[in-house]
């Protein structure tokens, strides 16, 4: 296959590729937002509720850990199929770009929670103890010590999550989720068109590289250690 073949396909199907790329970005952005809104607080609770933690509650920690572990252990394709009734209840259908956001977000939440928990573990315990000795409340310690100190690692976790969601969104295309994965399946796999497969793979790689570069740039700016 020559470069000219790929160039010709791009010129003839630019609208299709652009639309699929925008759908992928939409799925990744929305599911990522939901995943962070739920996953970050969940990660904080997992960290602070451990034995000896800021808000120690071992029983709650065991329950949440079990739920998160189950969520992380289910393969994404299985998850998409398993929660079809939930997806249909929430958005009225289980096919399409918006419908794909539901399993993507549910898959992202436990992933984000564990990454945030790991990021908070890197904060020196001496900083927390110093804040406690100064009379800071648990909420103040979380908002003014734990999260700010772990910010570079948290941003790195966000980057990893977004990159993972790009790959998940491609898998969502196999069941009518839209995006670049859908183009690869419908126009590449079903029609035995290698050119389409190569172009979509290249686009996914480009998206991952852009996300990774942006994340690394932000980490460098906020990391003053």
From TrEMBL:
Q: Looking at the UniProt record for this protein, which Gene Ontology cellular component terms does it annotate, in alphabetical order?
A: plasma membrane
What residues form the membrane-spanning segments? Answer: 25-46, 66-84, 90-113, 150-170, 190-211
Sorted keywords for this record are:
Cell membrane, Membrane, Transmembrane, Transmembrane helix, Transport
Enumerate the spans annotated as ABC transmembrane type-1 domain. Answer: 21-215
- Xref: InterPro entries: AA_ABC_Transporter_Permease, MetI-like, MetI-like_sf
Q: Where in the cell is it found?
A: Cell membrane
**CDD domains named in the record:** TM_PBP2
Task: Give the GO biological process terms.
Answer: D-methionine transmembrane transport
Supply the PROSITE patterns for this chain.
ABC_TM1 (PS50928)
Topological type in the membrane: Multi-pass membrane protein
Note whether Transport occurs among the keywords: yes
- SUPFAM superfamilies, per database record: MetI-like
User: Family, per the entry?
Assistant: Belongs to the binding-protein-dependent transport system permease family. CysTW subfamily.
What name appears for this protein in its UniProt entry?
A: ABC transporter permease
- Origin organism is Vibrio agarilyticus
